[in-house]
Automatic annotation (TrEMBL):
Keywords: Calcium, Hydrolase, Magnesium, Manganese, Metal-binding, Protein phosphatase, Repeat. The gene is PPEF1. This is Serine/threonine-protein phosphatase with EF-hands. Its cofactor is Mg(2+); Mn(2+). PROSITE patterns: EF_HAND_1, EF_HAND_2, IQ, SER_THR_PHOSPHATASE. Belongs to the PPP phosphatase family. Pfam families: EF-hand_7, IQ, Metallophos, PPP5. Residues 555-590, 595-630 form the EF-hand domain.
Length: 643
């Protein structure tokens, strides 16, 4: 009988173990499927982000075209170029004098700084920003001017050493996410003699607190110039800021003095060092390497001549184009980097590592290159470096190690694409220890949502922005669909639909698996391709506008925003009808956009509601936004997503 009881007990234990194993395997599979969905959503975000950056880089060709055309126009109308690209500051303008003219009223209740700055000012600034106070423009300009003086004395490549008793902390992209910076300081400590930092670029854009981050970092630099290093990233660029939000943030927060702040900020950017080397063996730069990376050249080039990645050197014997370029760049001289020097800087700011050997064009971003493990090994060996620390790419875990441990990517902005999309991280380097990684994720909730809810939110946002990209290319997509639909049935095979999507959008996405979120399929598995657009549309600003014009303006809205921001020299948001027409004609000619000028004129005239001869172009562009009539993922109510 005892044996019988033992047998029953054994059978019961086996069943419990078997059940536990089944549950465990199911849960592992469930998490794996959720993680796969999350990775797919991140791939969508990243592909569209890089496609936008590619368009941004390609704007350089347009600006070169524009310079050449306005150089010719200058001969006929000398005032035209000055009107569009000239500085508003008189020749006798002195930066420090202008700052002194801005009084701080007694009623101001934000952070008050005392020069020369001390550690106490860092704490005051942080506490003020925690309370969402806006730093007075007097202090903003003063900090920028002082920071420029300090940066001008620094070399292109900063050399620092670790000490036996402390470590150097390296942070990656912050992108205006103040909560991440504050969390880093809470976990790791404020900058000081004992807690040195290297911030590896992309402090600004995308997030809503770029100026606050920049002020904290620059004030910390002024207090501890030997213990804090700031590398330039590809977003420390005044024309990038026009597209990705920092210019708008400055003008909203500082209205009256915004233009002056942007002017000085542009100069500060150019003086930021472009790399840091620790202990003569750890190379830190924002993007990466190329086969032609020359550290000796990077040490000696005149970095302040690199005004913007969107303004490559123009090889010309004439001075006219150089005059225009100097005006738009705020530079009074005609000097610029050589083409080779410019390419060197572009590569270290924009390049990305890949597993494929060799060095080949970074077609996703449109700038820099993809570099393989052989390139990394060759360049590091040539300059006797152990490994490279870079940033520039969002990673799910906040960091990634590749190329046999010789390349470390560190990205410090958590929730970069969407809440829950990724962790942030920083790395600590000691003299006698391996790199140590610290991860975190800012959350507004004391009890984080379950993984399936976070993944569904991320996935929903990714699908929405992908649909917006699809509707911006609707005409091209429909033309391609119909080309493959020989029977005119309105249906394609899944493979034909996927090939059509990739050929037009060029996003390198898993279209077949994404089809469940994007299109309807019949009982035979055929794709009803017009269902790609059934739940999204571009809201028209005026009923009479031609559909092809609406789609064109929506597709190029970001590029047009930058171009018109250049025209709008006082950042008022208003441009004249004549400026609108001139710039549209240049844009249309360069991009080969086939839209009738009469249509554009009619639309502009209708947008000029008060008939004062000016267009509120910011509102003009906001009129073109995508409306989601229903959400196939969440079956939510009708939502409108505006630019």
């Amino acid at each position: 009988m005892g044996c019988s009881c033992s047998s029953v007990a054994d059978d019961g234990s086996k069943q419990v173990i078997r059940a536990a194993t089944i549950i465990q395997n199911w849960y592992r599979g469930y998490r794996a499927r959720l993680k796969a969905r999350q990775r797919c959503a991140l791939t969508i975000f990243r592909s569209i982000e890089y496609a936008d950056e590619q368009g941004q880089m390609q704007l350089s060709n347009f600006f070169s075209f524009m310079f050449e055309n306005y150089a010719k126009a200058r001969e006929k109308d000398p005032n035209l170029v000055t009107q569009l690209f000239g500085s508003s500051f008189p020749d006798t303008y002195e930066e420090e004098d202008y700052t002194k003219m801005i009084n701080v009223p007694d009623s101001y209740n934000g952070p008050r700084l005392q020069f020369p700055l001390t550690f106490n000012d860092i704490e005051i600034l942080i506490e003020g920003f925690k309370e969402q106070k806006i730093l007075h423009p007097h202090y903003v300009l003063a900090v920028l001017h002082e920071a420029k003086k300090v940066l001008m004395k620094m070399p292109n490549v900063s050399h620092i050493r670790t000490l036996p008793y402390n470590e150097i902390t390296v942070c990656g992209d912050l992108h205006g996410k103040l909560e991440d910076l504050l969390l880093i300081f809470y976990k790791n400590g404020l900058p000081s003699d004992d807690i040195p930092y290297v911030f590896n670029g992309d402090f600004v854009d995308r997030g809503k607190n770029s100026i606050e981050i920049l002020m904290i970092l620059l004030v910390s630099l002024l207090v501890y110039p030997k213990d804090l290093r700031l590398n330039r990233g590809n977003h420390e660029d005044i024309l990038m800021n026009m597209r990705y939000g920092f210019t708008k943030e400055i003008m909203q927060k500082y209205k009256l003095y915004g233009r002056e702040i942007l002017k000085v900020l542009e100069e500060v950017y150019t003086w930021l060092p472009i790399a840091t080397i620790i202990d003569n063996e750890i190379l830190i730069m924002h993007g990466g390497l190329s086969m032609s990376t020359d550290l000796n050249l990077l040490h000696r080039l005149e970095r302040h001549k690199m005004k913007s990645v969107l303004m490559p050197p123009v090889q010309s014997d004439e001075d006219t184009t150089a005059d225009v370029r100097s005006k738009i760049g705020g530079q009074k001289g005609k000097t610029t980097l050589s083409q080779h020097e410019w390419k060197q800087v572009i590569d270290i700011l924009w390049s990305d590592p890949r597993s494929k050997r060799g060095c080949y064009p970074n077609k996703s971003r449109g700038g820099g290159c993809y570099f393989g493990p052989d390139v990394t090994a060759k360049i590091l060996s040539k300059y006797q470096m152990k490994f490279l620390i870079r940033s520039h790419e969002c990673k799910p875990d906040g960091y990634e190690i590749c190329h046999d441990g010789k390349v470390i990517t560190v990205f410090s902005a958590s929730n970069y694409y969407e809440e829950g999309s990724n962790r942030g991280a920083y790395v600590k380097l000691g003299r006698y220890s391996a790199p140590r990684f610290f991860q975190y994720q800012v959350t507004n909730s004391t009890c984080p949502r379950p993984l399936h809810q976070r993944v569904s939110t991320i996935e929903g946002s990714a699908i929405r922005i992908l649909k917006e990209r699809m509707v911006s290319r609707k005409t091209d997509l429909v033309r391609t669909f119909e080309l493959h639909d020989c029977s005119k049935s309105g249906k394609l095979s899944l493979s034909q639909w996927a090939l059509s999507m990739e050929s037009v959008l060029e996003l390198n996405l898993p279209w077949r698996s994404l089809s469940v979120h994007l299109v309807n399929r019949d009982k035979d598995g055929k794709v009803e391709y017009m269902s790609s657009f059934q739940d999204v549309q571009i809201k028209k600003p005026v009923k009479e506008a031609h559909s092809s014009l609406i789609e064109t303006l929506y597709r190029y809205r970001s590029d047009l925003q930058i171009i018109f921001n250049v025209i709008d020299t006082d950042h008022s948001g208003l441009i004249s009808m004549e400026e609108f027409r001139d710039m549209w004609k240049l844009f249309k000619t360069h991009y080969g956009v086939h839209v009738d000028d009469i249509q554009v004129d009619e639309l502009a005239n209708q947008m000029d509601l008060n008939k004062d001869g000016s267009i509120d172009f910011n509102e003009f562009l906001k009129a073109f936004h995508v409306v989601h009539k229903f959400d196939t993922l969440h079956k939510s109510d009708t939502l409108a997503f505006q630019e």
